[in-house]
Write a structure and sequence with these properties.
The structure is a homodimer of 315-residue chains. Chain A is of the alpha+beta class and 315 residues long. Chain A has five helices and twelve strands. The first copy, chain A, folds into two domains: 159 residues, Thiol Ester Dehydrase, Chain A; 127 residues, Hotdog Thioesterase (Thiol Ester Dehydrase, Chain A, Roll). The radius of gyration of chain A is 19 Å and the shape is globular. Chains A, B: It comes from Actinoplanes missouriensis (strain ATCC 14538 / DSM 43046 / CBS 188.64 / JCM 3121 / NBRC 102363 / NCIMB 12654 / NRRL B-3342 / UNCC 431).
């Protein structure tokens, strides 16, 4: 699954990454685990396609460079969803990186149940205009960052590591508005416009206080782990569900067709967060709901992340 | 890392499993992730050494058989600890299964930083009498179980799947008291005797209420995930630390030399737990502490798990 040393694959030696993967227990234990796994696949793809071992990348000054997650989206269909993958499942993975310059990189994954992958190169056009049935797509926009002070997560500087090759990668089409979408989400404090045609509020606006959890929310280098934001948002969503009289069992069986998340900031170990959830339901389709969630630092109101979840009636 | 199909490795074709592993971000995001990973290694070892694909095992009646965790212990030394493994680290893994009959199996892993593995077969004697410096050992006692009702986790029956081969495995020595230790821990409600020579209480007995978390605590088949028990116990321990005026940052940097956990029951999605923590400190060595933790279902008092954590001064 992962490269073992510091010898990068020669740049341009491969067009993309293809791999068969067995979903293990750790990849689906808890609701953030599968997103953590997808993130590992992004680090693996960049390591294999961009000439730099992401796990040991350094800035020219010698500081560790960390390939942080800035925008993350997952899109399944009625037959394959992120929460629908369970241990024992075998999938075929295709990964492609796209050139965004020296400070960031765009990675697209296509995940299909073993033997059903449509084959062929994975292009921006396929994702934007012609997604294949039975395929789950994961898109990650990552930026290289480094800490400005070793003991704080509040200011993280953009950087570029030694050896990071990108000019050989396909360019994303100008019409691919990933960065613009994240910027707009930041300005609006959410992904979802207000109102959304065809949807009505399913609950009054919901606010939830959350203390960052030193047990679960931090990664091996003391940053709030990108996958933990999924769990943090889900914690607020679960609380809203309970306030509507829905059960934990229903929450466990929720079906997530897709999710977008944009990351704007990290936080320190003692931070308290304020999470707001706007839950919308389709006027006609029971179980078709959208949750638009903003995660802020309490007190300062600093926006840390926004996420939108597309929910469907459980199977 | 994992086998891709349903064709088991021929029984007896390998003496043990050896593999070089890069620790990825998902393996150390949050405090339970590394224990989840070790558990995956156990399922992989049993799949490779015991003639049955653990991920698709079935009872003779055709019901899914689940290789549950009954006793789990991790033991590092001053140079390698479970929380000391971080992303980018490369380790050499050796795994050996031992014969406990048709309904359970004992699996031992040796983890050493790449290039430092002492080599040679991994024996019970090495683990019990002669652990190698620079090696982390993980021991898992697993039992095959199946649900008696598809909608409840309260009664889980012992079972044995079709094709599970064990008689070719080395027998553990009679002096290896894993099952007896778990039984005794169950009877006593903890692993640690009272008193422990050389240790004194570091805090009054601590009780903590915990609602099972539908976001984080359940695995892909709706059982409380074995690795989540580590996080659940840590949640109570972190609360106790805070009650002693210690910071979340100190908790994040805690050093865990070893941990034992025994699993006695599962629980349903709405269960509330009562967690008791007895924290002891060494009379002379600052930072040398033992936490003895019991996890019970609130109301009934049913014992779900006990765990003991060996803590050391942070590096």
């Amino acid at each position: 699954m992962t490269r073992m040393g510091n010898r990068p694959v020669p740049v341009g030696a491969r067009r993309d990454v293809r791999r068969r993967v067995r979903i293990t227990t750790s990849m689906c234990g808890g609701s953030a685990a599968i997103y953590a796994q997808f993130g590992d696949w992004t680090w693996a793809a960049v390591s294999e396609l961009c000439g730099v071992d992401v796990y040991s990348a350094r800035t020219p000054g010698g500081a560790p460079a960390y390939l942080s997650f800035y925008h993350y989206e997952v899109r399944g269909d009625e037959t394959i969803t992120p929460r629908g993958l369970t241990f024992g499942d075998v999938v075929d993975l295709t990964s492609q990186c796209f050139d965004l310059g020296s400070e960031s990189v765009l990675t697209l994954h296509r995940v299909a149940r073993a033997g059903t992958d449509p084959g062929g190169p994975l292009t921006a056009r396929e994702y934007l205009e012609d997604p294949r049935p039975g395929c789950l797509y994961v898109l990650n926009l990552n930026r290289w960052i480094t800490r400005d002070r070793p003991d704080s997560n509040e200011n993280l500087l953009v950087s570029s590591p030694v050896g990071f090759a990108h000019q050989h990668l396909p360019r994303p089409p100008a019409s691919w508005p990933v960065r613009a979408a994240a910027r707009q989400a930041r300005n609006q404090g959410g992904f979802v416009p207000d109102p959304v045609p065809g949807y009505v509020p399913a609950a009054p606006p919901f606010e939830f206080g959350y203390d960052l959890d030193p047990v679960r929310d931090f990664n091996g280098v003391g940053l709030v782990y990108f996958a933990a934001y999924f769990a943090i948002a889900d914690t607020a969503l679960a609380a809203l569900w309970r306030s509507l009289g829905r059960t934990n069992r229903q929450f466990l069986h929720r079906r997530v067709l897709g999710q977008r998340i944009a990351y704007f900031g990290n936080a320190d170990t003692d931070a308290r967060l304020t999470i707001t959830v706007r839950l919308l339901r389709h006027e006609k389709e029971a179980g078709d709901e959208i949750a638009d969630i903003a995660i802020r630092e309490a007190g300062t109101g600093r926006l840390l992340a926004v996420t939108a979840v597309d929910l469907r009636e459980p199977e």
